[in-house]
């Protein structure tokens, strides 16, 4: 009897402890400690759910602990990323069911429009805005116009992408029939090629995620080299040191630990932006207004287009974000004020920074700061880059593992996880190889602006301009008004021209830089 009583008391104590931990995790999540800071972001997720899961991953524990029986012991951690054998393996959902179906149930924690706006702001107001003054250098007032134009277009394409998630049922009601960007792509290619669209979107995601990781390594090496120019350490050596610090990312099982630093990263970034603007304002008397002209550098301005577009990429996680809002009708309003704010802040930051340094503006604007301020600011930026790297890296690993190793009978290679849920040795080797690949790219092509322009022109324009307008026309063309058709066609044509032009010029610059480095 005493043993039975002790057993019950132990179960109750364990349950209460786990519930309190889960509630505390949920409290931190609601306070914003789960908000991603990646531009890339950020976002950046297989079937669009990784971004939201990592923002609200800890809140999933509340559902597991409070939804079960009192004596039941809840699972620990983010159930989607549990890989250490202490939790269930990720479901091997088929393409028809969609890997996002595991999170579509009722009772999932919802977010307000303000929280959704915070997530979008983090995605489009990240550290890559540091390259915008360089875009003004080669575009002048046309570069400023492009910052405004890109904000308007990305806001519009975000809205029409969400419209593609809905259809009218037999009763005339508008209902949500799709969950992700991949679902929309597959619906457009059905019935002849039911999985082609999803594969195209996944490839675009992988390219953007890996390129984002490379950019973090490049910017880390660049900032450290310019912060301590007197040290006998080259930029390539700093990149190698940064990669050595990032190598443990290959052992990541989930993003719970990493995401705790996200709010600090965001706050640090805003402080850095304020410091840069404050310094520029202190030199307002010396601003070179005459340097801002209407002409453009024909060879380098297309690269600037890619830089600007890349700084606005957020479409990849918008379907998941809208699906998790308490009131999805507020999505349009949220998109309006977030992109208006981003447009104003980016335009002012780029213009003020360029007016301060004019023709001496560098690819990463903090390299123009005086040496005393530069070292402090750059160290904070490097810390932010290193803390942000695991997010796109883990997202890329998730997409690659699901597409190539865990897609049931469609998988190209054997499962990289054992029966106990642990990562096999050769799977860990492939993860390490991905980290090393980002290092090699950063070493051979250490050009922040060129890489950012190439990524923005290729995947940024595709995911933000081309595909949303094409999908909108394909799925809803019978119900569109003439001006919507006109906007979609215009965005597709203009986006296609800018994408091709920026890609060609960025690729030419990268090839030239690669040859120069090879000769050295």
Automatic annotation (TrEMBL):
This is Vesicular inhibitory amino acid transporter. One of its GO terms (molecular function) is gamma-aminobutyric acid:proton antiporter activity. One of its GO terms (biological process) is neurotransmitter transport. Keywords: Cell projection, Cytoplasmic vesicle, Membrane, Neurotransmitter transport, Synapse, Transmembrane, Transmembrane helix, Transport. InterPro entries: AA_transpt_TM. It comes from the Eukaryota. It comes from Brachypteracias leptosomus. The chain crosses the membrane at residues 142-166, 206-225, 261-281, 301-321, 333-355, 375-400, 428-445, 451-473, 485-504. GO terms for cellular component: cytoplasmic vesicle membrane; inhibitory synapse; presynapse; vacuolar membrane.
């Amino acid at each position: 009897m005493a043993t039975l009583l002790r057993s019950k008391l132990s179960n109750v104590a364990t349950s209460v402890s786990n519930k309190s931990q889960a509630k505390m995790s949920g409290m931190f999540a609601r306070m914003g400690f789960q908000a991603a800071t990646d531009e890339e972001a950020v976002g950046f997720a297989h079937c669009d759910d990784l971004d939201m899961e990592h923002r609200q991953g800890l809140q999933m524990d509340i559902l597991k602990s409070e939804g079960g029986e009192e004596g039941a012991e809840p699972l620990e951690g983010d159930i989607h990323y549990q890989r250490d054998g202490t939790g269930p393996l990720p479901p091997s959902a088929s393409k028809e069911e969609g890997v996002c179906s595991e999170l579509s149930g009722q009772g999932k924690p919802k977010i307000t429009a303000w929280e959704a706006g915070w997530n979008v702001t983090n995605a489009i107001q990240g550290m890559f805005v540091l390259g915008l003054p360089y875009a003004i250098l080669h575009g002048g007032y046309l570069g400023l116009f492009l910052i405004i134009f890109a904000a308007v277009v990305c806001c519009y394409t975000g809205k029409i992408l969400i419209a593609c998630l809905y259809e009218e049922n037999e009763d005339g009601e508008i209902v949500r029939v799709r969950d992700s960007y991949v679902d929309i792509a597959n619906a457009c290619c059905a019935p002849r090629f039911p999985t082609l669209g999803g594969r195209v979107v996944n490839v675009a995601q992988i390219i953007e995620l890996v390129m984002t990781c490379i950019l973090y390594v490049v910017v880390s090496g660049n900032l450290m080299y310019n912060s301590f120019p007197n040290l006998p350490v080259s930029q390539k050596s700093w990149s190698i040191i940064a990669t050595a610090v990032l190598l443990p990312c290959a052992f990541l099982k989930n993003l719970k630990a990493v995401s705790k630093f996200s709010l600090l990263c965001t706050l640090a970034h805003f402080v850095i932006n304020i410091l840069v603007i404050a310094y520029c304002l202190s030199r307002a008397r010396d601003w070179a207004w005459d340097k801002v002209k209407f002409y453009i550098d024909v060879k380098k301005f297309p690269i600037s287009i890619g830089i600007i577009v890349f700084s606005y990429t957020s479409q990849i996680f918008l379907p998941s974000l809208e699906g998790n809002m308490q009131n999805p009708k507020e999505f349009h309003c949220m998109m309006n004020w977030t992109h208006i704010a981003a447009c104003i802040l980016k335009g002012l930051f780029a213009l003020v920074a360029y007016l301060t340094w004019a023709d001496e503006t560098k690819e990463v604007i903090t390299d123009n700061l005086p040496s005393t301020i530069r070292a402090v600011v750059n160290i904070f930026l490097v810390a932010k880059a290193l803390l942000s790297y695991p997010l796109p890296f883990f997202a890329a690993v998730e997409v690659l593992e699901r597409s190539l190793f865990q897609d049931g009978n469609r998988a190209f290679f054997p499962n990289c996880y054992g029966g106990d849920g642990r990562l096999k040795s050769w799977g860990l080797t492939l993860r390490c190889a991905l980290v090393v690949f980002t290092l090699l790219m950063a070493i051979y092509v250490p050009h922040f602006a060129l890489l950012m322009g190439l990524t923005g022109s290729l995947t940024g324009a595709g995911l933000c301009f081309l595909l949303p307008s094409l999908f909108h026309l394909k799925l809803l063309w019978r119900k569109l008004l003439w001006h919507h058709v006109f906007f979609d066609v215009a965005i597709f044509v203009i986006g296609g021209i800018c994408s091709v032009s920026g890609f060609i010029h960025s690729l030419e610059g990268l090839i030239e830089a690669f040859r120069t480095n090879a000769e050295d």
